[in-house]
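Dear colleague,

Thank you for sharing your sequence with our group. We've completed the structure prediction you requested, and as agreed, I am returning the results in plain text so they can be pasted directly into your records. Please verify that the sequence below matches your submission; if there's any discrepancy, let me know and we will rerun it promptly.
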Amino acid sequence: MLKAGKKLNAAILSPIAGIQYQRTINTIPQAQAISTNLDAEKLGLNELLVYVDGILANLCMGSEYEKFEEALSQIGTILGFVCSRPDKETGGYGLIIVAIDTGKYLVIECKTEATTQTIKKDYCNQLSGSVNWFKENYVYPNECVPIMIHPSKVVDEVASPDENMRVMTEKELTCFRKNLRDFYSTLCQNGNLSDVNKINELLRIYKLRKDDIVNRYTVKFERKD
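Please find the predicted structure tokens below.
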């Protein structure tokens, strides 16, 4: 099956705490990467849908964070991006890095098990720390969008979130899951998994292009009154 964080593109080595970390780089157009991934795995159409459904089963608010992070990394791969989980590779920060384009990244913290009505100070500090880690290891002109996956978009009154932080709540996550499932269902009905033009068209229809991920499926955080 498709593997999360599969390095289809080039990587640069950067030392972190004495361990070599592969700095993820995305140089392949999204639709072409999807086609290349699918061609390499030789999955039948039914097998592919079963695989996608298996991932989506763990991509739900309330899921145990380890399963959710793995599912999210797999989702990134089947959407043609390149993903990295530094904590699994080096024992470092527990974040997800998604390279959505050359020099453009998402830095994601998953707090799917949270039960509070607001995003806690500690969570905001963790994401800010992850952004700092990114800036140290993915030097300028690389840029990132920090994303918190949390049931609430409201930050605690004592929290100091990164000013660029975006939030994916259950509402946005549900929409993302549905569009992803519909994208692959339609692609399989089309029957030609190597048709890059068709893949591009479906990415547009189901709003799954690289810029859609932030614009469509995340919102700006709000402060508690």
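Summary note from our side: Residues 170-190 form the longest helix (21 residues).

Kind regards,
the structure core
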